[in-house]
């Protein structure tokens, strides 16, 4: 066989091996998830959902699980679709105990990035029900490590996928819903972002290599915000009907986070830090829902049907009396005014796995 032919055969073999190693055959031993209500799969509902928790009532969970599971959606959330893609079981809530060898979910509804002391220091301690901030979730993770990987944790974690976030949404909610000015809240962003990065460093030092870090959502597009903070001044809105100053806050957080992740990547060159762009995808879904297999952008599926422009009434939210769910949640982006539908989460998971909404995308 001539040198050129041999070289060509070798090249084809290498390409095939790469395709097998990184394409459809990409595998993780486990997935470990951290976050808030966007990714909680039942931590707040271990032993039964508390009666006051509207997201623990029907019709939450109706599409897939046929009952409320503590997920803030009509069905599965992003982390469920990531687990399914990699052939892993749906992540058990870490507080439920059990076998964590294939992953665990530390995310919990209401989680903030910052600890209670931060909110105390800015005079918001009475406004926060801080249920498992980032540092606490990292403690939960450390506690389950011996049962997940015994004495071989470095190796196990290097072959696991970490999804850290989104974090930040509830930190800003606590301040905004308490009447703090937008200038005040923007002032907290650097502290929130640096706290996220410190948490990521802890995980990297424990052995994490593949880490997905989502930015925050465009909160100015969510019916809860548009209803509570709507104005009669057209200049306050962008062309999508979203509140500009609230989306500017989200953009500010995300640009600072991206810059910090780029620095972190330089500090730990052996890691693969993936920024998941929640913001851009949700904006694109609002502008052209049909491109994502949906029909409705800003309309709420589960809420006060027919009320206002968005089917949303803050006093009759999904799970409360006076609210009901639409019959076709698969056509909606927004489930309850602040969380998304299973159909939207499936689409977002795909955008992170295959691109273009993760940099770099999860599948390499």
UniProtKB/TrEMBL annotation:
Q: What protein family is recorded?
A: Belongs to the 'GDSL' lipolytic enzyme family.
Q: Where are the transmembrane segments?
A: none
Under PANTHER family, the record lists: OS05G0209600 PROTEIN, ZINC FINGER FYVE DOMAIN CONTAINING PROTEIN
Q: What GO molecular function annotations does the UniProt record carry, in alphabetical order?
A: hydrolase activity, acting on ester bonds
- Asked if the record carries the keyword NAD, the reply is no
Q: What protein is this chain from?
A: GDSL esterase/lipase
**What are the alphabetically sorted keywords of the record?**
Glycoprotein, Hydrolase, Signal
Q: Which Gene3D superfamilies match?
A: SGNH hydrolase
Taxonomic lineage is:
Eukaryota, Viridiplantae, Streptophyta, Embryophyta, Tracheophyta
**What residue stretch is flagged as signal peptide?**
1-25
């Amino acid at each position: 066989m001539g040198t050129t032919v041999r070289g060509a055969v070798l090249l084809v073999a290498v390409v095939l091996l790469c395709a097998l190693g990184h394409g459809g055959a990409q595998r993780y031993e486990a997935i470990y998830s951290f976050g808030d209500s966007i990714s909680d799969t039942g931590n707040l509902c271990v032993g039964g959902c508390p009666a006051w928790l509207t997201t623990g009532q029907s019709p939450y969970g109706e599409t897939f699980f046929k009952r409320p599971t503590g997920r803030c959606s009509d069905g599965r959330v992003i982390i469920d679709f990531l687990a399914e893609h990699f052939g892993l079981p749906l992540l058990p809530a870490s507080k439920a105990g059990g076998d964590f060898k294939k992953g665990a979910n530390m995310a919990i509804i209401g989680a903030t990035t910052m600890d209670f002391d931060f909110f105390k220091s800015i005079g918001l301690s009475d406004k926060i029900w801080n249920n498992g901030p980032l540092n606490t979730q990292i403690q939960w993770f450390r506690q389950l490590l011996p049962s997940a990987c015994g004495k071989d944790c470095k190796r196990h974690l290097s072959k696991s996928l970490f999804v850290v976030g989104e974090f930040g949404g509830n930190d800003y909610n606590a301040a905004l819903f308490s009447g703090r000015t937008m200038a005040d809240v923007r002032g907290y962003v650097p502290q929130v972002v640096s706290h996220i990065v410190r948490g990521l460093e802890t995980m990297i030092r424990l052995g994490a290599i593949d880490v997905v870090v989502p930015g925050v959502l465009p909160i100015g597009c969510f019916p809860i915000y548009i209803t509570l903070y709507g104005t009669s001044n057209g200049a306050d809105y962008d062309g999508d009907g979203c509140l500009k100053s609230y989306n500017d806050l989200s953009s500010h957080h995300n640009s600072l986070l991206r810059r910090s992740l780029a620095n972190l990547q330089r500090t730990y060159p052996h890691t693969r830090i993936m920024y998941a762009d929640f913001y851009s995808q949700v904006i694109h879904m609002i502008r052209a829902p049909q491109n994502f297999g949906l029909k409705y952008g800003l309309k709420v599926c589960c809420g006060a049907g027919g009320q206002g422009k968005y089917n949303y009434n803050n006093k009759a939210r999904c799970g409360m009396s006076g609210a009901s769910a639409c019959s076709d949640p698969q056509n909606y982006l927004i489930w309850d005014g602040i969380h998304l539908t299973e159909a939207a989460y499936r689409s977002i998971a795909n955008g992170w796995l295959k691109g273009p909404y993760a940099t770099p995308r999860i599948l390499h």
